[in-house]
Sequence to fold (258 residues):
Amino acid sequence: MRRVNLLGLETDEDLAQRAKEGGREAERLLILRLYPGVYTLADRLLHNPENARDAAQEAFLRAFSRLHQYDGAHRFSAWIFRILVNLIRDEFRRGNRVITAELKPDDWPSNEPIPLEAAIREENYARVRSHVDRLPEQMKTALLLHFQENLNGREIAYALGITYDAARLKISRAVAKLRQWMGEDE
Amino acid sequence: MRSLDDLTMYMYGLLDPAAEEAMKAHVAECRDCNRLGRRIAAEHKLFKGALAREHPDLPAWTSERAARRRKS
Fold:
């Protein structure tokens, strides 16, 4: 029987099963659901939108060409993040792909006034993001998988290819570092 | 009072079920841990807001791929 969630939608895992059986619509739905998260993580690790788009595309291509390897032991999203993390580590970080810093007009501060509360919130968010960028790669990825993607400890461990305890330790140390750096800002 | 690290792992939902139950019972009784837990929750909300997903446009390859497969 096909599982459905509370909204009556198929789960990602059900869609993956259908895609495995050749379901093209299932493949398309998986991209629609997961692309924003996959792209966001790639962009935050690579700091380059063009390379992030390439990495996200390749992660999906690899996932769909290796669907027979997906055994359903973890959520499908954890599996595709694992593919993305390995891809970035093996290809985008080893100099096999060109990574260029990109500065667009959008990066410059706007002259448009924004409400004070929103401005303060954005400033705090920017501080958090800049400190997250200072973290070692695996700590940063673990933290992003928790906050951005709501992956649980075991899923984060699976995506990073490390033990559950190691994943928790990385998050714990990452949060301690963020607290220290945020405190130094005050 | 429990350590900041233990409370953080509890508030982040990263404890094993047994440890989580024990911590839940403790926090319900301990005023200091309860107060600290609230601060951690506020901090978690800040981090979560800062690190929320972006909303990129879907790239052309998603529809190109679908179109190509439909033709084949």
In short: The interface with chain A takes residues 5, 8-9, 12-14, 43, 46-56, 58-59, 61-62, 66, 69-70 of chain B (CB under 8 Å).
